[in-house]
Write a structure and sequence with these properties.
InterPro entries: DegT/StrS_aminotransferase (IPR000653), PyrdxlP-dep_Trfase (IPR015424), PyrdxlP-dep_Trfase_major (IPR015421), PyrdxlP-dep_Trfase_small (IPR015422). Keywords: Aminotransferase, Pyridoxal phosphate, Transferase. It holds the Pfam family DegT_DnrJ_EryC1. It comes from Thiohalocapsa halophila. The longest helix has 34 residues. The protein folds into two domains: 227 residues, Type I PLP-dependent aspartate aminotransferase-like (Major domain) (Aspartate Aminotransferase, domain 2), CATH 3.40.640.10; 127 residues, Aspartate Aminotransferase, domain 1 (Alpha-Beta Complex), CATH 3.90.1150.10. Strand 2, helix 4 and strand 3 form a beta-alpha-beta unit. The chain is globular, with a radius of gyration of 20 Å. Helix 1 runs antiparallel to helix 8, helix 2 runs parallel beside helix 8 and helix 3 crosses helix 7. A four-stranded mixed beta sheet has the order 1-9-8-5. With 371 residues, it is an alpha/beta fold. The structure holds pyridoxal-5'-phosphate. Pyridoxal-5'-phosphate (PLP) binds next to helix 3 and helix 4.
Length: 371
Amino acid sequence: MQFIDLQAQQARIAADVEVRIKAVLAHGRYILGPEVAELEERLADYVGVRHCIGVASGTDALLVALMALDIGPGDEVITTPFTFVATAEMIALLGAVPKLVDIDPVTYNIEPQGIEAAIGPKTRAIMPVSLYGQCADMDAINAVADRHGLPVIEDAAQSFGARYKGRRSCGLSTIGCTSFFPSKPLGAYGDGGACFTEDDRLAARMRQAMNHGQDQRYSHPRLGINGRLDTLQAAVLLAKLAIFPDEVERRAVVGNRYTELLQARGARSVKDASDGLLTPHVAPGYTSVFAQYTLQADDRDAVVAKLKAQDIPTAVHYPIPLNRQGAYAQYCCPDCTPHADRAAARVFSLPMHPYLSAEDAERIAEAVAAA
Ligand SMILES: *Cc1c(COP(=O)(O)O)cnc(C)c1O
């Protein structure tokens, strides 16, 4: 059994991918070719915002967004310790301080009231992460940001396709950033990412930042990077986008099936209990794209070992929160984010992809409950 089965999807779109890749080979515009512009237009439509800027990875999306907002030395950006490292990494890379605020123990996303308490004179932006495929509480976060005149960057690397009160992830704040890493909900066949915004000025700045700060050839008014999305990856993503809405639905079916099967075997919702085997909670008004289907268990490592013995792969996202990582400990108080610490010690994720069969889900749920 595979943790993420990309083969089933490949078989479904193989013919379309081949046609699109051959078209790129025929026109030969490998850098910023027509597929990139076409994809940007389709993605902007899908999210429901004016601008999409394709970039080379989710990490570059975060970097380009921060650069467009002029984040630099002496600045603070508020974010979560319970995320993939890139979130805080790009803040620190620009010489700014990632200020870590604890998570809500039910959703695993940054807690809006904690953000308000952490805002100080050096705060320049707020960067929530929509972890595991469910958006952070963006209305509450935007309300805090508005009170203090701060921009909000949603790290939506895991939530592309998710809905929040009827709107789509990536279109909920000043800038939305996502990743097309192969295992993400919308994945390429290599690295890729995108930034989204309604703001014309920020869109122009991000477009420059991802291409050496260039406004026209050999004219560089701003600093930038080589952070362009490859034409070949855009071609693959155009083929994947055609089946993406269906895949988002299938992901919800698989996630809800897991929850039903596990609760029928004694698991409780993370909303209703704090120990034992806990299933994820998708809050009313939210949908999840289940980038990960993540449970909690009291003795996580033992459960994971028992599943491994039955050929059921699992993963832990993330075993060490950023407040306990060597490169980030200098920025934060190690013991100030207890919910993140507790989650890091208890979470594990089950195999998750749109093509996971009902039989496999049954076998996995049975094994988890027995373990
Ligand atoms: C995957 C991920 C990133 C980085 O995306 P890449 O495309 O791998 O650079 C950033 N933030 C979060 C939350 C992620 O899950």
